[in-house]
Amino acid sequence: MSELLEQLDINQYFPAALDWASNILLAIVILLIGLWFAGKVNKMIVAGSKNSKHLDDTLFRFLGSVARYIIIAFVIIAVLNRFGVQTASIVALLGAAGLAVGLALQGAMSNLAAGVMLLVFRPYKVNDFIEAAGRFGKVTEIDLFTTILQTFDNQQIIVPNSQIWGDQIINHSHFDVRGVDMHFGIAYDESIDAARAVIDGVLAAHPHVLKTPAPFVEVETLNNSSVDFLVRPFCQGEHYFDLLYSVPEQIKKALDEQGIEIPYPHRKVILVNETNKEI
Prior knowledge:
Layout: H1 2-7, H2 10-47, H3 57-82, H4 87-104, H5 106-121, E1 129-132, E2 135-142, E3 146-150, E4 156-160, H6 161-165, E5 169-171, E6 177-179, E7 182-186, H7 192-205, E8 216-222, E9 227-232, E10 234-236, H8 240-257
Antiparallel strand pairs: 1-2, 1-5, 2-3, 3-4, 6-10, 7-9, 8-9
Helix pairs in contact: 2-3, 7-8
């Protein structure tokens, strides 16, 4: 054993060992600095959300994560390069794998792209009442892939963002003041001015109807059996459904009290009694 140690020339392996040790040390330094820098960039991007009131925090968190993982990927490639690994083939392999994953997750990617557009342009926000993708409800959560709605009967609806972005979006909460359209018909024999006065009285007494802008009460259509009014009171957005479901009942009762007829479709049948004629 001693003879074997004497024959072993340590100086022969010292340069290689020193080279490997320096590479390992440098790789550790690159890795630590890269991870620190990736985390720093992520925090800087997330902190940028505080300076922008028009963009959602979720978008900044997503962009921060993307930037962090991209930096970490380059750091890992740099570390492998220190050990003589051919990184060009690895980059090509990662590109091919990314393309394959993108094709396999095409639907998810379309939802992701739509989610980014929704978070950038913000056609709605949390707590807004919207109508989109054939659904209506209160927005409880917006993420990169889906929008979650809560209906009036406390159902949770999860809608893919691609369905929302590719269709019409109606935001019922965008403006603070809302108009509530309603239609009422009276018989042709009734006085239009008297009916308008009754409707105006109901709206004036309602606590949620705004004085400015003034309610709109005008004849809209002359139907077959009725003279139809378009009634549009204005209210704060949070009282929209209070007016929508309370005013029709109040107007119906007020018209009944004044003896103003609300007609329903009817048909007049005329019977003709024909006598036999002598030939």
